[in-house]
Amino acid sequence: MRIGVVGINHKLADLKLREALAKACQRRFGPTSLVQDNHHFILLSTCNRTEVYFSSEDLAITHTYLLSILRHEVAEEFDHKLYSYFGVDCFCHLTRVTSGLDSAIIAETEIQGQVKAAYEGAADCRLLPKELHFLFQKSLGIAKKIRTELQLGRGMPNLEHAILQTGKHFFKTSEPVRVLFVGASEINQKIMGFLKGKNFASMTLCNRSDESARALAGEYNIDLLEWSQLNDWHQYDWIIFGTKSPDYLIKRKDVAKDLAGHKLIMDLCVPRNVEPQLGQDPRITLLNIDQINRLLRIRHRCMTHTLAEAERRVIQATHLHTNRYLHNEQSKITLLAVTA
Predict the structure, then answer these.
(1) Strand locations in the chain, DSSP E?
(2) What does the pLDDT look like over 84-135, one tens digit per residue?
(3) In whole angstroms, what is the distance from residue 98 CA to residue 143 CA?
(4) For 193-245, what is the HEC assignment?
């Protein structure tokens, strides 16, 4: 099966390197980017990983071509931080990813939607070979089955809980906390709904698209801040960033000298939305996605038995489907030979 992947994730690289590679891959391997006709790519980029899945007649040549582009785009040394898988190992890896078994927050559910969106986005823009259709469709199907049968995600600590607990620890006051969400991403929507259910009354959304912002404001019954007024972020106590912007939306030099009160800023994005130097301001606590993920890891240890069973099912299912695929391909070749 002519499939492969090159990737980097939260286990192997810090946020700065992941950010640089995410930007480079989006420029060169995103759905609308131009690549050579004999190479086929699907880019999966999230806050915790950037992976390029590929297919071609010669995987070694495509692998070399992909790495040469990244070396040209990214100045920092990164080769030793990358991982590569081919054939059934690639299939197994994507199924683990889609199941949430390779996530920073084990068994989180958002990754399944991200994998599906990456596949559908590429399929809408390019003519993909059957190997990549097989890889993504089967991985999504197997992951869904495993999640359902083992009830992965139920009862497990998730990002929303980590964010709430961090906020409660930070704001030890009976005064209402003014929360500003920047971006209408899926994770921000989850956090909005979660905090709404915890009786956070003062919430505001600032989003680049007015139409999306108004729809969400109506759904969650929250206030709106125009995108052109994002510089007023300092009027809020807790600011949560979740956009797809490739650039910093706020920088240290833009912080007012008369900043009132201590601010909690959470930057859940890769590339980051907030200049890291902002965290050096004594009036601001800035947390990135890696720091928030660390709060959850110890709480997953009680799930070792369920996770081990999920790993076993991933391996079993991917090998079974690979063998069926190869058998069907061989049967087609034999049939063509007989009829020729």
Answers:
(1) 4-9, 40-45, 49-55, 83-86, 179-182, 203-206, 223-224, 238-241, 263-267, 284-288
(2) 999 999 999 999 999 999 988 788 888 999 999 999 999 999 899 999 999 9
(3) 6
(4) HHHHHCCCCCEEEECCCHHHHHHHHHHHCCEECCHHHHHHHHHCCEEEECCCC
Can you tell me the distance from the alpha carbon of 270 to that of 186, in angstroms, rounded to the nearest whole number? Answer: 14
Q: What size, in residues, is the chain?
A: 340
The average confidence (pLDDT) of the chain is: 90
Indicate whether this model's pTM tops 0.85.
Answer: no
For residues 183 and 206, give the distance between their C-alpha atoms in angstroms, rounded to a whole number.
Answer: 6
Q: How remote is the C-alpha of 44 from its chain's centroid? A: 8
Helix (H, G, I), strand (E, B) or coil at 104: coil
Cα–Cα distance for residue pair 228/214, rounded to 1 Å: 15
276: three-class secondary structure by DSSP: helix
Torsion of Cα atoms, 268 then 274 then 280 then 285, to 10°: -40
For the stretch 220-270, pLDDT in tens is 999 999 999 999 999 999 999 999 899 999 999 888 887 888 999 999 999
Rounded-to-integer distance, Cα 35 and Cα 41, Å: 9
Q: What kind and span of H or E run contains 121? A: helix 110-125
**Predicted pLDDT at 154:** 63
| Rounded Cα gap, residues 153 and 105, in angstroms | 10
C-alpha to C-alpha distance for 264 and 257, rounded to whole angstroms = 17
Whether the CB-CB separation of 48 and 289 falls below 8 Å is answered with yes
Quick one: DSSP state of residue 257?
T
Maximum CA pair distance of the chain?
A: 82
CB 184 within 8 Å of CB 212:
yes
Q: If pLDDT is split at 50, 70 and 90, which confidence band does 37 have?
A: low
Bridge-based pairing of strands 263-267 and 203-206 is unpaired
Q: What residues are annotated to the active site?
A: 47
